[in-house]
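Why show two proteins at once? Because comparison is the fastest way to build intuition. When a single record is shown, students tend to memorize it. When two are placed side by side, the eye starts asking what differs. So, the first record is below.
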Amino acid sequence: MHEEPIDPFAGDPADPSAELDDSGADDPLTAAERQDVLEDLADLEIYQALLTAIGVRGLVIECEDCHEPHYFDWDLLRGNLKHLLTSGRPRVHEPAFDPDPDHYVTWEYARGYADGVHDALASATDDNEG
């Protein structure tokens, strides 16, 4: 079973994308880029565990290319990050169809929420020890 759709033009000499510049395809990430993606994956697990409980379905990311918000559920974002790790390039994306923005938060919000939970737990631990 394929994780990604099969290219209907694979091997077709009339492939309309054949003339596109594919230089840099499948370039490995630098060590720093790879570490960043691994950290994002680890953070994503924490954010999902904390935020799903309050009704958050995923993250919203402002697209640098089209300047539109893109809504990603947890599994789709995780899949995109794993794809980036293995291929060295992001997946082609399409905006979500009619998502409810109230169910998505930004990376910054998720990070702040996780930091707040961490600080609250640390403070509670300190109070119990003192």
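Second record. Ask yourself what differs from the first in the token line.
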Amino acid sequence: MRGLFGNDWNWIVAGLVSAALLIGLGTLTRFPFLVSAVISVLVFFGLVFVLAPRQLFEGLDLRSIGGGQVAFARELLAKAQPAADRLAAAAGSIADKDMKAKVKDLSDIAADVISKVEAKPASAASVRRFLTYYVPQAAEIAEGYATLADRRAPSQQRLASIGSVITKLQDAFVHYADSQADSELGTLDVDLRLIQESLKEDIGR
């Protein structure tokens, strides 16, 4: 069932709600048990679908995209998304405002790059190293900072050293985000050249 509708949590929530509804209809109304049961079952399956996690590449016409590109992007995102989630969680657990903002920036960039790869699987190649190396490493370092900072007497030298690495990671994240945009602009440059050649042929300009 997990493969069909998503993670187990949506089944659990749907089961709890439908069970409560069945009990409520049976005790608070005069509905026959069979009617209450049918309503509860319909609510159960409705919630299973509504609460099911969104699937990768949902809404894309995968038939128009190369199967190899989709498989490659899917593999990268399957590895990167858990690390991105850890990075976001680490940002929420850091008390220092400046460092929290830096890690939050890393998290936002990671989420943006991932969403763009999902929207355009062909862009995955340009950010492969970012997704498979930098995002997991950033999550590891941010978690380490949060753990160290939570000590009663953390080493300020170690905190400063980790903070310096996080600052450098910001530059790397921006670089890869821009490289993803550059790959899209490369297509724009080709389109502009073709338009200019067509205009020159059609109107002599």
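One difference worth noting in the second protein: DSSP finds seven helices and no strands in the chain.
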